[in-house]
């Protein structure tokens, strides 16, 4: 899978930008706050219709504009496919091959990406919601059914929570039975898919982590489900509690993902170096897992992470990804980059102006 070109209109600090990309490695070189990360964010948004940096879509639209658009051309399975996303106050509009997709779920999955950024350490140190979002975003790319199940589950969950809040002390058990039956149906599918994904991810990530740690560390991923045994029965037992709290306490919306190195919880006791190695192992494993699922390597986005990795981890990252995944990398300097391939394109970024470097 390759991204051949992209066009941005009123995205962040870019009013109208067109870029063609190298099929192997693309480096965006410049000082901080010049617009390098915005390019990677636009590619991420083109793939997933969501930003990795903000939950507020209005922040993506250039100051003074009312709409923004991102157009890209991908090459997948030997076929070139144009993609387009438009964002306005009315919401999102997504097109594949110039045809509008009625549902965003039908759009996601055409372009697969793996993002590696400094804030990814929050995947280990942050709240469980960050890890659930990670699972949802990664699975949504490669499992269409998961995306549909997740959308339906969240819609019913919202409906159930609203009902609990608005009917405090006057709950209709029959109506709640109807909602619970649907919640259990989609929730069980979500938990099964998540469990399988985590098991497969762990197998690959542990091999990588074992290698990166020179054979002295083993990585284990634990899927911590809020549902212990039977979702339907546990949901029913929690009904009186939910009625008092006016929210749903049981289900995959409460799940968590934990990381253990040699049996020790990495979020509480892991060093920052270990945590970076875990994230690197997870991201490299994602690349392989997406390839196994789709038959194509995803786009790899590296946002200012090379300076945070030592030479050994840099080399492993570059050797593992480049030549497989088309890679987009932002950096303030080339001095710390080792063993770069000869086949690449460097873009110089200054105050939102981007020029191809003629000196490669």
List the helices and strands and how they pair.
Blueprint lengths: L1 E10 L2 E7 L4 E5 L6 H13 L19 E9 L2 E10 L2 E6 L2 E3 L2 H4 L5 E4 L5 H4 L2 H15 L1 H23 L6 H40 L6 E6 L6 H7 L1 H7 L10 E6 L2 E2 H4 L2 H23 L4 E5 L7 H11 L5 E5 L13 E6 L2 E4 L4
Helix pairs in contact: 4-5, 5-6, 6-7, 6-10, 10-11
Short structural summary:
The protein is α/β, with parallel strands linked by helices and 360 residues long. Helix content is 42%, strand content 24%.
Our estimate of the beta-strand percent is 15-25%
Number of H- or I-type helical stretches: 11
CA distance, first residue to last residue: 24 Å
Query: Structural class of the helix and strand makeup?
Result: alpha/beta
CATH architecture of the largest domain: 3-Layer(aba) Sandwich
- Shape assignment: globular
Average the pLDDT over all residues and give the rounded result: 91
Radius of gyration: 22 Å
How is the largest sheet built, in terms of strand order? 2-1-4-5-6-7
Contiguous low-pLDDT stretches (5 residues minimum) are: none
CATH domain class name of the largest domain: Alpha Beta
Series of secondary-structure elements, N-terminal to C-terminal:
EEEHEEEEHEHHHHEHHEEHHEHEEE
> Which sheet architecture does the biggest sheet show?
6 strands, antiparallel
Helix content: 40-55%
Say which CATH homologous superfamily of the largest domain is assigned: P-loop containing nucleotide triphosphate hydrolases
Number of domains: 2
* Count of individual beta strands: 15
CATH topology of the largest domain: Rossmann fold
